[in-house]
Amino acid sequence: MTALAPERVAERLRERFPAVAFRRQAGEAVRDFTLHVPAESLVEVCAFLRDDPELDFAMLSWIAGVDWLPREPRFEVVYGLLSLSRAFRLNLKVQVGEENPRVPTVTGVWPTADWHERETWDFYGIEFTGHSDLRRILLPEDWVGWPLRKDSPLGYEEVAFTHNTPQRVKPAPRLTKLKPRKVRYRAQ
Amino acid sequence: MTLNMGPQHPSTHGVLRVALELDGETVLAARPIMGYLHTGMEKQAEYKTYTQSIPQTDRMDYLAPMSNNLAFCLAVEKLVGIEPPPRVQAIRVLLTELTRVAAHCVWLGTHALDIGAMTVFFYCFREREKILAMYDQVCGARLTASYFRVGGLASDIPAGLLERARKFVDEMPAHIDEYEALLTKNPIWLARTKGVAPLSARDAIALGATGPMLRGSGVKWDLRKAQPYSGYDTYDFEIPVGASGDAFDRYQVRVEEMRQATRIADQAIRRVEEIGPGDYRLRDYKYVLPPKEEVKTSMEALIHHFKIVAHGFFPPKGEAYHAIEAPKGELGFYFVSDGTPRPWRMKVRSPSFVNLQSLSTMVHGRLVADVITAIGSLDIVLGEIDR
Predict the structure, then answer these.
(1) Cβ within 8 Å of B, A 101-120
(2) pTM listed for this prediction
(3) Between β-strands A34-36 and A88-96, what pairing exists: parallel, antiparallel or unpaired?
(4) How many Cβ atoms sit within 10 Å of the Cβ of residue A178?
(5) Which chain A residue lies closest to B387 (C-alpha atoms)?
(6) DSSP H or E stretch at residue B82
(7) At A154, is the secondary structure helix, strand, or coil?
(8) Which of B241, B334, B362 best tests the A interface by mutation, with the highest count of A CBs <10 A?
């Protein structure tokens, strides 16, 4: 089987979906072939990519959310597609706004998307509409907030030191009177 | 009936909890519940320079630290656009293939232990210990290696490592024969694994399973052949595949992979010997630390050293995904860089996380006892699932 050229993938997609505005990710160091897809046509594009015998993207390898705060649209969902028969990778990108971030689910196309989408929901709060079981996956169910969003701090558990107790605790007088020990060096 | 398995069950290989829906002894559904080991590595990486994140990767799949290091470094190298010298690549291949043997040794030992064959465990850990001793020699740590760096290695390989690796590689095939003598024709082993926890090729692809899971189901897919990295296309090795996709097939695939890994390691040793002593890092001081001798004599080298240590290096704006064939499957890192020394986003595509998703399909309609075999044959590490 001959190698698949990125241009050929884009051409096939444009042939099949003339109305959809695909945009190739441009940039200094975009090392993988990446196409932007509008959220509303994501599912049919994915189904086509999977079923087309020439492209044959049978596997969805990973899904990643990206938060571009303060840029608008704020979120991106990246889908890492893999064609086993052509040994070719394609990244699809969907941009989502900050208000009510929603993307249609691709679990109907690749069942593996189930956990990946749950993970993205868990970390970014991006809702995958139509997902049958959208729950937190790695964080506890009662967790509040979306930890991988850029406005969520790295966070730490506050340790109960005197400086963060409500009333000021007076240090023991013995400690305040302690002075650093002087060390004398004598010239030999 | 709902039965809770784990998170402290010894056969869940860590802190995995599985909620089993049962009808008598038949499993209707298995819902894995994880996250007990979640430490937010992806979030932490956004606050660290690229080099500072390398020790984090050791703690993902802690049975194969060198593979994680390799996947991380290759992804950053792809983002930056550099390639380490051939000697470094051969050393990396040698160490990651030894890692594969060590990881499969742990898998085989614990999997057999779960099923009730205790002896295999001691045999497997005997060989794993030799590999860990080599890690120790190379970087001073037995488990958390952190030995690879972007553009090369942390330090040169110590004298005597190649001889030690050579001895190991020569002995290993006989040891693999020993494991096989204990298991391959053992009636109890066959009864517990043949036809158990099957996964068809179609399901495996749909569920995104990779590595021995996918190959066990008969799909000939190995990233070392399909999308070669680190010069794997110049090594001579075979990809074993199974036929029916049951636990026994996965066992055979992994055992054969151990043989092939020793074969590759053997070639890598010869390659390193042929190249002889040389650089252990790329000489590209924008991204890689200059050699220490040069730092002591050259002003420019000192400046570069200082800049990289103080700020980290500045990769171009962009993004890159690179995956390697880790012992458990496709391990990939996706980086988004905004041109600063810290990644804007690091995503880990961990094989255990994705492979575990097929558990429910594998055990549906089977017996409870088979769930143990299924989890064992998945070969998961929770550190990698929860990250």
Answers:
(1) 110-112, 114-116
(2) 0.89
(3) parallel
(4) 7
(5) A138
(6) none
(7) coil
(8) B334
